[in-house]
Amino acid sequence: MHVAEVARALDLLGVFAFAVNGAFTAVEKTRVDIVGILALGIITALGGGIIRDLCIGSVPPAAFTDQYYLSIAAGGALIAFFVRRVPRLLHGSILVLDAVGLSVFAVSGAQKALAFGLHPAPAILLGAVTAVGGGTIRDVLIREIPSVLTSGLYAIPALVGATITVLTVAHDPRLAVWGAIAGAVACFLIRMLGLRYNVDAPTGIGRREPRG
């Protein structure tokens, strides 16, 4: 399979995962109707990819030129809407789908950045931006502090996944597909292990109490 096809397939998988994630988040944490659920699901799914495409000059973004992006995003959000009455599915699914979207977008974002001629360091950064972009927009819309600012093992796994992808391509472009798979798996495992064992990055020293 061609690298571009792999990147697109990963992109669409990320779109679906983040669409369901965003819609589930709307159901669990807000009181919105079907329009709000669809909107939050679609924005979560497409936000990171749109940011990526605008940064590399791929305009109009793929979300607006490839019919599958919007269709899959809307379909994922609708699936979440119709199964929203199964509470036990919500919280666990939100976390797993967020990790899936994070992983595949980190890889596909890095791959697309490389395809547009970016050097390794910017490609890694853009992979991470692609991964956290949709989730950040989601959190802002529901008035929560974005996960990328509060969870150290959110951006870090994305950076690891993007780095593995980029370094593999730099070593041997023929291994790009395997590098993408390895990067996505590594990102997913780090994120899930962080959630499972409540591991986080070091935080800053708390504020001192004012004197007097």
TrEMBL record:
A GO cellular-component term linked to this record: plasma membrane
Keyword ATP-binding in record: no
Entry keyword Cell membrane: yes
Domain Glycine transporter: 9-84, 96-168
Membrane topology (UniProt): Multi-pass membrane protein
Compartments (UniProt record): Cell membrane
Alphabetical list of InterPro entries matching this protein: Gly_transporter
Transmembrane segment boundaries: 6-27, 34-51, 67-83, 95-115, 121-141, 148-169, 175-193
Record keywords: Cell membrane, Membrane, Transmembrane, Transmembrane helix
Family: Belongs to the UPF0126 family.
Record's protein name: Trimeric intracellular cation channel family protein
Native organism: Georgenia ruanii
